[in-house]
Design brief:
Layout: H1 7-11, H2 14-17, H3 33-37, H4 41-48, E1 54-58, H5 64-75, E2 88-93, E3 110-114, E4 126-131, H6 141-150, E5 152-161, E6 167-168, H7 176-185, E7 189-191, E8 196-200, E9 211-215, E10 229-232
Parallel strand pairs: 1-2, 1-4, 2-3, 4-5, 6-10
Antiparallel strand pairs: 5-8, 7-8, 9-10
Length: 233
C-alpha cells in the first residue's frame, strides 16, 4: 500500500526540496527554455503580448532564463523583444535562487519569488506561463494546471512539461488516459512526444478529479530523475 502525503510534508521531502531540474537552464541555446518548449519565450511575448506583457515561470529554479530575458529586454539589440522596458518577469520556486543577480538594480521588472507553487497567488494575469519540468515535483499537478489556466490573459499561452503516467488512482492504477482526455476536453493540447501540455487563452478550468495525496517515492519518470506520483479519485 502506497503511503500518500500532503503538500506540507511533500515540500520538505528530498525529491522536491533538492530538485535541480532547472538550476542551470538558460533562455536560449543547448540547455534552454527555447529548446525544451520549442519556442523562444520572448519571441512569443513579442508576437502575442501587449505593451507591458508578463511572463510567469513556475518552478523557475535559480531563474537564469528570466534573468537572461530581463537583460535582453532591457539592453538587448534592437528587436521586437527589446522594445518593452515594462515587461514583467516573475519566477516562483520552492528553493529559489541562492542570491539576487549582481545587476538586480538594473532589472526592476524581474521578480524571483521563493514560495511553494501551491500557495502562491499572482497579482496580475500573464501573457505567458511556463513550467519547464516543474510539474514533476508538485503533488496536486492538476490543480496547478487549472490555476495557471485562470491566470492567463485572453491571448496568453500556458506551456508545461507533464507526465500523465505520474497521475494515479487511489488503488495505484494509472489514470493517464482519463487525465489526458479531460485536459483535451478543457481545451488543452498534449504533445506526447515532447511531454508538453499547451493551452492558448485564459479560462476557468474544472477537471473531474479530486486530489488525495502524493507519493515522493514513486521513482524516476521519463526524464530519468526521481519524480512525484500524484493520486486522484
Amino acid at each position: 500500500m502506497v503511503r500518500l502525503i500532503g503538500d506540507s510534508e511533500l515540500t520538505a521531502s528530498s525529491v522536491v526540496a533538492n530538485s535541480t531540474m532547472n538550476r542551470e537552464r538558460g533562455l536560449t541555446g543547448v540547455n534552454s527554455y527555447a529548446r525544451e518548449l520549442g519556442f523562444d519565450p520572448l519571441d512569443r511575448l513579442a508576437e502575442h503580448g501587449g505593451t507591458a506583457p508578463g511572463w510567469l515561470d513556475l518552478c523557475s529554479g535559480e531563474g537564469r532564463a528570466l534573468v537572461e530575458a530581463a537583460r535582453r529586454s532591457a539592453v538587448g539589440p534592437p528587436s521586437a523583444a527589446a522594445r518593452w522596458p515594462g515587461v514583467e518577469l516573475t519566477g516562483v520556486d520552492l528553493v529559489g535562487p541562492p542570491a539576487p543577480p549582481p545587476d538586480a538594480a538594473a532589472l526592476p521588472h524581474l521578480r524571483l519569488v521563493t514560495a511553494a507553487v501551491a500557495d502562491w497567488v499572482p497579482e496580475r494575469s500573464y501573457d505567458l506561463i511556463t513550467c519547464v519540468h516543474g510539474l514533476h515535483y508538485l503533488g496536486d499537478q492538476l490543480g496547478a494546471i487549472a490555476r495557471a489556466a485562470s491566470w492567463l490573459t485572453p491571448e496568453g499561452r500556458f506551456a508545461a512539461h507533464f507526465d500523465p503516467e505520474s497521475v494515479r488512482r487511489p488503488d495505484g492504477s494509472g489514470a493517464a488516459r482519463a487525465v489526458v482526455a479531460a485536459l483535451r476536453a478543457a481545451g488543452f493540447e498534449y504533445r506526447a512526444r515532447r511531454h508538453l501540455l499547451l493551452l492558448d487563452g485564459g479560462r476557468p478550468v474544472v477537471l473531474p478529479f479530486e486530489y488525495v495525496g502524493a507519493d515522493p517515492a514513486s521513482g524516476p519518470n521519463y526524464t530519468g530523475q526521481p519524480a512525484v506520483g500524484s493520486y486522484y479519485r
